[in-house]
Amino acid sequence: MSRHLYPENPILIVDDERAALDSFEMSLFSSGYSNLVTCDDGRKVMDLLEEQEFSIILLDLIMPHISGAELLKQIKARHPHIPVIIITAVSDVGSVVQCVRNGAVDYILKPVDRDEISNRLRNTLEFTELEQENARLRNGLLDGTLEHPEEFEHIVTQHPRMLSIFKYCEAVARSIKPVLITGETGTGKELIAQAVHRLSGRKGEFVAVNIAAFDDAVFADSLFGHVRGAFTGADKPRMGLVEKANGGTLFLDEIGDLSLLSQVKLLRLLQEQEYFPVGSDIPKKSNVRIVASTLKDLAVLKRESKFREDLYYRLTAHHVVLPPLRERPEDVGPLLDHFLAQEAEELGKPVPTYHPELVNLLRTYRFPGNIREFRAMISDALSRHESRMLSSAAFRAHMNAEEALDEEFAADTVPQGLEQLQFSADNLPKLKETLALVSDLLIDKAMEKAGGNQSAAARILGISQQSLSQKLKKRKQDQDS
Predict the structure, then answer these.
(1) Phi/psi zone of residue 7: left (φ > 0), alpha (ψ -120 to 50 degrees), beta?
(2) Burial class (CB in 10 A: 0-12, 13-18, 19+), 103
(3) Has residue 471 got a pLDDT over 50?
(4) For 12, which DSSP code?
(5) Do the beta carbons of residue 73 and residue 102 sit within 8 Å?
(6) DSSP assignments along 101-152, one per residue
(7) Average confidence score pLDDT of the chain
């Protein structure tokens, strides 16, 4: 199995002592930093920086030929974007302060503790990535264009909010921090996760897993694997999904269903970038990007103590909220054309024409299953299609069936106490006033959803177009009088 390098651009370690370089290499490699370049002569550093891009430079302060302080000035003059951490055995506060003034982001005193240098590197990488994300996001918002529109070609949309989401995904794709994607069922959360993975440039696999059905034991074994003899029947070691996705992206679908015990195990992976295979007390390092999704509101689960607060803030470092299809009415027409072409090709049928009124009809529907439901509706309608023009009958039947279910649900969930409402002569005028207000609100909402189309609004309200027209005329006369 190929070894994936982390970070993407190597860390350059500069020290004139070979023993010190070897010690740095071993410490960093054991902490999960596998992409390292060492240099024992400060005079070679500027040539190395011209040859390739580095993520961080660890620079010894006291060296022959050229000091770390002088080399720092040259680095910042020609490569100001590369963060430099000074390593020194000298407890000379003045020298260190001067280095920081000259552009060093941090300093560490020798002898270097493994955990300390690992944490300093992680903090520097995260801060640098955050700056780069902000710059990409600012540039994208300013010029209004996508750098890689081809990565979103499989997502059919004309909605400005979706374009903003694409720009945000481009900005955060190369970060090592998790991405949380939320939205209703069928809104395309996995498609966005796949786009983030492709934009990230990570060489490893995109591994998707739905964790909703996992209990704690299955979760740990599936994600982290196990060693031989971990439990009865474990006659050989098993590689978990984290290891399979090493160097790539692990997509955890339905993270809102994760138990509290499993949340603790996932938190360690995110915080320490390490995990324990089942049955082992030796941690394994991981280089995996976590992308998670859920249709649940994690903020609500957090307040109800059903989701760990520390895990919540780790997962929401980058947050994408996908709008439902009913909030994207301008996408109904393009999606209809797109799925008709796909389904017709699969069924071996010509792509049918349809009456423009079909789009207006579909825009009045709330699409509880969003794009996934829309495609199923189109597939069903096309399988029944036999004439030249696509009939709206199958769409209407589906919409009516869903509306009937809604009415049945509403009837079963009448607010407690409403059935005892007293319709006496004393409160009848007040009831009439309330009903008139509710009627006006329903009409306004239907007209808004139908885009001002009275025929479509009438279908939403379940009345004739003539009846709706009369109500609108009467209301206008009342307002004018």
Answers:
(1) beta
(2) middle
(3) yes
(4) E
(5) yes
(6) HTT--EEEESSPPHHHHHHHHHHHHHHHHHHHHHHHHHHHHHH---S-GGGG
(7) 86
* CA angle (304 as vertex; 261, 208 as ends), nearest 5: 50
Q: Give every strand in the sheet of 84-88, ordered side by side.
A: 36-39, 11-14, 56-60, 84-88, 106-109
| pLDDT for position 431 | 57
User: What is the spatial distance between Cα 289 and Cα 247, in angstroms, rounded to a whole number?
Assistant: 8
CA 410 from chain centre, in angstroms, equals 33
Secondary structure element (H or E) that encloses residue 86, with its range? strand 84-88
Q: Are 61 and 98 in contact (CB under 8 A)?
A: no
Distance in angstroms (rounded) separating the CA atoms of residues 275 and 135? 33
DSSP string, 50-74: HHS--SEEEEES--SSS-HHHHHHH
Specify which residues 109 forms β-bridges with: 88
2: pLDDT strictly greater than 60: no
Residue carrying structure tokens 């000091």 = 67
The label of the residue with tokens 């590197």 reads: 121
Residue labelled with tokens 């055995």? 89
DSSP characters over 230-252: SSTT--S-B--HHHHTTTSEEEE
From the CB of residue 413, how many other CB atoms can be counted at a distance below 10 Å?
Answer: 8
